[in-house]
## 1
Amino acid sequence: MLAKKILAIIPARAGSKGLPNKNIKICAGKPLVQWTIEASLESKLVSKTLVTTDSIQVQEIARSCGAWTPFLRKESLSQDNSSITDVIKDALQWCEKEKEYFDYVMLLEPTSPLRSSDHIDNAIQNYFRVKRTDKDILISVKEIENTILWALGSNSETGYMYPLFGFDTDNPRRQDLPKCYLPNGCIFLAPISSFDGFYTDKVIPYLMDEKSSVDIDNQVDFNLAAGLLLR
C-alpha cells in the first residue's frame, strides 16, 4: 500500500449547456456521476473521495454511494467559465480548514464513465514508479492520428495558409511523424504541495484505450457511453 494519502475530487455541478443535467442523467441504469463515484470508491489506492457540487441532487447521489460531500460549492465556482483549478483549490482549502490533510489530489471528471477503478490504481502506480521530481503531474491520454501535425492554420491578415506545427509538408511521410497524444479527461494526479493546475512542463502520461477514453459532451457521446457500459 502507498504511504501517501490521495484525495480524489469529482466535480459535478448542476448546470451543463451541451447536455442539460448530464451528471444526474441516467446512463446505463445509473446517474452518470455514480459511475465515477463508484470507480473512485472501489480504488485500492485512493484515500478519500470528495464530490464538489452545487446540486443537492448530486449531493444526495454521492452520499447514497458513500462518497464525501460535506459542502455545496459556491455559485461563483459553478459557472460555465469557472476554472477547474479554482474548484479544486476551493475543495483543498476546505479540507485544510477542517484539518483533513492529503499529499496528492486526483481529479476525476464524471463525464468519463468508462474509466474504472483499475485504471485509477494503475495510473497511480505508474506515477509513483516513474516520477522524478516532487512537481511531476500525471494526465491520462489517448493516442490520436499523427497526421494532425500536417494541420494548416489561416493567417487572417494575408489570407494564406501556413503549417501550424512547422512540419515539412513537401514530404508528408506519416511514418516520419512522432506519435501524438490527447488528454482524454479521465485521470489527473498532482502533488498538493505545489498544485497550481495540471498542465505544466512535468507531465507524466498514462495511456488509455479509445473505448475507456469516451468523454461525454453531448447526447451522441452519452449514447455511445451508455451502449459501451451495457456490453
Note: Residues 24 and 57 are 8 Å apart (CA to CA).
## 2
Amino acid sequence: MTQQIAKANEKTKENLQQQLSLAQAQLELDQDELDDAHQDLIRAGGDKQATIQNLRDQHEASQKAAAAQANAGTPAGTTPSIELTTSRSLVAQVEAWLSFHSKQNLLRQAQQNAFDRQSKLAVEHDALEKALSEEKVQKKIISKQSKMVPKAGGTQNAVTPVVAGTTNGTPANETTGASAGGPNSQDAALSFLKDLTVDQKNLTHLVKRIETEQELAMLYGNWIDYVTVRKRAYVHGMFLAAFWILVIGLFVFGANVGAQRFFSDLSPEQRQLQTMRTVVLFAVQALGIVLILLVIFGKPSNFATVVALAGAGLTVALKDFIVGFFGWFVLMGRDGIRPGDWVEINGVGGEVLEVGLFHTVLLETGSWTDAAHPTGRKITFVNSFAIEGHYINFSTSGQWLWDEVQVQAPSGSDPYPIAEEIQKIVAEITVTKESVPNSGLPGVAFPNAKGSASTAPSVSVRLEGSGVTISVRYLTRASERQEVRARLYRALIELLRQETSIRARV
C-alpha cells in the first residue's frame, strides 16, 4: 500500500492513505493482542524459555549488585549489621534472631500486600478483557486485507475494509468497494481501531503489572525462606550457649561441693587450710562467672584494650597487695627479718611469727623500753611497710638488742663512784655472753662504720629535777632480757643498800 501511494494520483492518494492508517492501526492492535497472549502464557508457566531468561536476568542483576557492594565495602562511620555477626555469644545471637524475626514479619506483610495487589489487578484485567471481547463481538470488527484491483486506463483502486454496524446483533448496512468506503466510514473505523489499541495496551500493561507483583511475591517468599533458615541457625546457637552455661554452672556447683567436703573435717587451728578453702571456693566461683559472662557477651572486640584497662584498674585497686608482694622479697633479703626476730613495725614491737608473701605476723610484746612480755595479740602487717615505710630489727644476727636501766642516785652521795660500780656490775653480768660460740655479737656493730663500735656497757650521769639519774646501756639477747634485767636489779639494789649503810655509819 505504501508503494501504491507513491504511484497513485492525487485523487486516490488520500483514500489509500486512510486505508494504510487503518491497516497500521489494525497491525498495532494485533501486535498488542499477541503480546498480551504471550504474557498470559508466561504467567501460566507455559513459556519455559522466557521464565529461564527472567531468572537469568535476575541472577546477573544480583551478581552485579553483590560485586558493587563488595567493592564499596562498609561505608565509613556505619556500623556492620548485627545479622552479619560471627560471634557465638548469647547476646549477639539473640539480637540477630530478633532482627531477622522483625524482618520476616515485614516480608510476610509485604508478600501479602503483593498478593492483594495481584488479585486486584487480575480482577481489573479480567473485567477489561471481557469488555474488550464483548466490544469486538458487538461491533464485528474484522480486519480486511487490502486488495489492489486494476482498472481500465491503468488506474488502481483499493478495496477498503468493511465496517458493519449492528443494532441488537443484526447488521444494519454493509459497504464494500471504493464507492461504499467513504471518508467518514474510514475515519470512524480508524478512530475505533485506535480506541481498541489503547484498551489493548492497557490490558497488556495490566498483565505486566500482574507478572511483576507475582515475581515480587515469589521473591518475598524466597527471602522469607532464607530468613527462616538463618533464624533456625541462631536458635541452634542460643541453645548451644544455654547448654554451655548449664555445664559451667554444674561445674561450679560440683567444685564447690567437692571443696567443702574436702575441707569439712579441718579443725579451727588449721587456719592456713581454712584460708586455702576460701581461696579455692572464690577462685572457682570467679572462674565460673567469667566463663558465663564470656558465653553471654562474648570476647570483647578490643580485647587488648580491655585487658590493659582491667590491668590498670587492678593495679590501682590491689596496689597494697602488689607492693606487699615485692616487699616480701625485701624482707627475705640480707637485712630483712625472720621468724623469731624481735622487731618494731609502725610503733608496734613484738616477736616475728610468720613472714608470708603478703603479710607479716607479730606477737605483740611492746617496745624495747617496756616489759617485753607478750600481750597475746597477733598483729598482721601488709609487707608494703618494707618499701613504703620502715621497720626496726633490734638485731639481724643472734637476736641481740640494747637495753637500758636507770638508777636514782641517793641524795647527798657522789654519783660518779656509784656509776663506776654500776658499770662494773653490768660488765660482770653481761661479759659471759661474748664468749658464746656463734653468738653473732660482733655482727651487731656496723662493719662499714668509721672506727670500731664498742659493745661494752656504757654509763651516763644526768641531772633530773632535784636528783641525779644514772643510766646504763648494755647488750643482751631478746629472749634473755628479763633474766638479765632481774639480775641487774638485785645487784643494783644490793649496791644502793651498801651505799646507804656506809652513809648511815658516817
Note: The chain has three domains: 2-66+80-165+177-240, 317-393, 400-445+453-505.
